[in-house]
Design brief:
Largest interface: A-B, 101 and 100 residues
Radius of gyration of chain A: 23 Å
Strand order of the largest sheet of chain A: 1-2-6-3-7-17
Distance between the termini of chain A: 14 Å
Oligomer: homodimer
CATH topology of the largest domain in chain A: Aminopeptidase
Number of domains of chain A: 2
Structural class of chain A: alpha+beta
Number of strands of chain A: 18
Helix content of chain A: 25-40%
Amino acid sequence: MAWAEYLRKKETEFIEDLIDFVSIPSISAMDEHFEDVVKAGEWVVERLKRAGIENARVMETETHPVVYADWLHAGEDKPTIMIYGHFDVQPADPYDLWDTPPFEPQIRDGKVFGRGASDDKGNMLAPILAIEAMLQTRGTLPVNIKLFYEGQEEIGSPTLAPFIREHAKLLSADMIFSSDGGQFSEDQPQLIQGLKGLVGCELTVQGPDADKHSGKHGGGIANPIHALSLIIASMKDDEGHITIDGFYDDVIDLSIEDRAAFARVPFDEAAYIAQQGVTDTFGEPEYTTLERLWGRPTLELNGIWGGYQGKGTKTVLPSIAQAKITCRLVADQNPDQIFEHIKAHIERHTPKGVRVDVEKMAASAQPFLSPAGHNASEIAGRVLTEVYGTAPHYVRIGGSIPVMSMLLDTLGVHATVFAFGLDDENIHAPNEFFRLSSFQKSQIAYCKLLEEFGK
Amino acid sequence: MAWAEYLRKKETEFIEDLIDFVSIPSISAMDEHFEDVVKAGEWVVERLKRAGIENARVMETETHPVVYADWLHAGEDKPTIMIYGHFDVQPADPYDLWDTPPFEPQIRDGKVFGRGASDDKGNMLAPILAIEAMLQTRGTLPVNIKLFYEGQEEIGSPTLAPFIREHAKLLSADMIFSSDGGQFSEDQPQLIQGLKGLVGCELTVQGPDADKHSGKHGGGIANPIHALSLIIASMKDDEGHITIDGFYDDVIDLSIEDRAAFARVPFDEAAYIAQQGVTDTFGEPEYTTLERLWGRPTLELNGIWGGYQGKGTKTVLPSIAQAKITCRLVADQNPDQIFEHIKAHIERHTPKGVRVDVEKMAASAQPFLSPAGHNASEIAGRVLTEVYGTAPHYVRIGGSIPVMSMLLDTLGVHATVFAFGLDDENIHAPNEFFRLSSFQKSQIAYCKLLEEFGK
C-alpha cells in the first residue's frame, strides 16, 4: 500500500489544496459569481493534470460549465467507472452569522471551515488525490476512470441533462460513484438507496400597483401578504399534511419492510431535536420522524418577502408579496405533474382582489431509488465495511441530486453515492465545515475502491 | 386683502422654500437620519423667524425633537389657536421606483415631487407663509398663535405624549388646527370627523437555530415561514373578517345615520379600484367599501420576511420568519387591549415545533371622533365653503394621527384638520407629490382662517 504512504506524506499539501479550492466563491445561484464558477472548474482541471490525468478539460453547457477528464489506459477488458461531484457552492448569506468569512477558509479543531468545504469541494477533491496517489506510486490504475464534475448542482443542474444527452458516448461508464453525499456518522458507514426528487416555484402575489398607506386603504383593498399567507396556509395544515389535490397520488407508500428497515437504523430523536435547535419535531403524525425525512414527500417554504422589512414602522399596505417553495418528491411522483397540481391549487385558493403568478423553478429532479443487489453498491459496501470495520446502514436521504436521475435516464446506470460528509457540517448554512479526518478517510476509501477492481 | 398680493408676489420664493425643505431627508424611522430630522426642525425655526415669529425654538423630547413657536400679541381677550404639523417623513424605499430621487425635489406638471412634499412638509409650511403674509402686510395678527410641529409623526409619535403632558401650560390653546390631513378633491372640501387609532406589533417565528438544508430536514422539523403563514391566516379570513377573539368587542358599530352620511359622499368604486391598480375591492362584505375604509377597524400586514430572498434557488429550511402587523382602530377600541387580544391569539395559534415572540410597536393611538357642532370645525367649515365655493363633506379617514388624541387627552381640545393634501399624491409610496395649486390654496385658506377670528 505505497499509496497510503504517499497520502500521509502529502497530507499538509493536500489540505492546502482544499483551502485554495474553497477560497473560490463559486456560487452558481448568483450571476455575479458566474466567473468564479468557471474559475473553480479551471482549478479542478489544473489539479487533475497535476494528479497525472492529462486528458482534462472545462466544457461549456448552456449555463454553468462542467469538467470532464479520463484515464483509459487500464485496458479494454477492465471496467470503466465514472466519479461524479460538483465544484459550485451554495450562497453564503447571511454573512454575519459566520464566525470566519465563508471564502477565507480556516482550520479549527481539525476542521476546515468555509462555504463548500463539505458540500462538495472536500468530497470531490478526495478521489482526485486518491488517483494521484496510485498513479504516482504504481504508474497505473486498476480500472479505466472518467471524472465528471459539474458547476450547477446547487441550482438544481438546470442545463446538465441536455449536456449529458449530447455527450452520452463520452460519458458512458459501467458504474458511477458520486462524491456528493455523506456517511452515517464518524464511525458508521452507510449506503444510500434513495434520494428525493425536486420541484419548486416562485409565487408572486400582486395587490395594488404601488405600496399604499395602510390607514387610507386598509379595509378597502386586499393585502398581498395576507393573501400569500392564506395561500401558503392552504397548502399544508398545522400537522404537516400537504393539502394539495393530487399531491400524494403517485407516492409509493412505505412498505412494512421499508418501515422495519428504517426502524433498525439508530436514530436518536431527542438528539436530533437538540441538534436542530427546535422545541419538537414536526410533520405527518402517522409517520416516524425518520420515515418523514427519508420516505415522505415534503413542501417547504425557502423564502418569503414583501413590504417593509427595515427597522421601526412603515405603515404600508404593500404592492407585492413573494415566496419561494420547493417540494422534495419520492418515487413515483413526477416533478412536472406535481408542479401542475401546485399551480392549480394556488389558482383555486387565490382570494379576491389580488393576482398571482406562479413561476416554475428552472431545475427539477426525479426521485431516485436504487435496485436491490446492485453491483456497484455491493462493491462500495465491501470497501466501506473494510474502512470502517462495520457494515453500512442502508438508508435514504431527503436531499436531491438531480444528476443521479439524469445519469440513469441517459446512461442507464444507477449511480452509487460514495462520499464522506457528515450531517452536522452545516452545509447550506453558516459555518459549513469538513473534518480533516473525513478528508483523509475519503482519500483512503477511494484508493481501496480502485484496488477492489484490481482483485 | 393685502396678504393676497403678498402671497402672489412671493409665489416663486415660497416654492423654492418648499423645495429646500423637502430636500432634507428627515426620515424618523431610520436612526441614520436622526440628524436630518433635527436639521429639518432647525430649518422650520429659521423659517418661522424669517416669517416674523421671533419666539421659535427646537425643543428636545426623549427621541425626535419638536418645534414650538408663538406670537401672543393679539391681546388677552383674543383666543389662542394652535397650528400643528410634522416635519419628519416616511422612508423612501424602494428607491428604484421613483422617477426622480426622493430628496432632490423637482417640479413637473405643476407638482412638486419628493418624499414629504404632501405629507406633511407642503401642508405644514403653508400656515407659516400665511402668517408671514399677514404680519408683513398688517404688522399684526387677529388672534394669538402657537405653532407646534413634531419630528416623530411617521413613527407614531412615540415620545410626544410625555412631552405634551410636561409642557401642557406652554401648549394650552382654545382651538387646535392640524395641517396634517387633506381635502376631498381639487374642488370639494371636507371636514374630518374621525380618525382611526393605531396599534401594531412585530411577530417573530423561530424555527431551527440556523438555516437548514430543506432536503435533509424537510418533514423533520417545522418551517417557520409555514408557521407564520398559518398564524397570519388564522387572524383574518378570506373575506376580510378579523378572527381574533375580542377584536370587535368594543367597536361602536356604524349607526343608520352614519351609514346614510357616508352614502351621501360621492365615492366612485370603479374609479377607486382603477386608482389602486387592483382587480377588485376586498373586505367584510357586510359593509360598503367606504364604510370599511372610514368606519371599520383593520388588520394589515406591513411587511414579511424570512429565508432566501435573492435570485435563483436556495433550498433552505429557514431559521426565522418575521412580519410587521398594524391595526387601525375605531371608537371605542383600546390599543393596549387590542394588542393583548392579538398576542393571546398568536400564542393560541402557534403550531408545534416553533417559538414565537410578539413585540408591541412603540407607538399607538386612540381612535378619534369629533363631537357634533364643534366650534373650530364650524369656523373651518365656513372658511372652506368660501375658498372652494361649496360646503365641505363630513368624512372620516382611515389614517391615524396619534397627536390628535394626545392633545385631546392633555389639553382637552378636539383638534380640527385643516390641510390640503389629496388622495392621489402617493404619500408613504414612491413618487409622492404636492400640487402647487394646493400649496397656494392652503396659504390663502390659512389667511382666511386667521381673518375669520378678526370678524
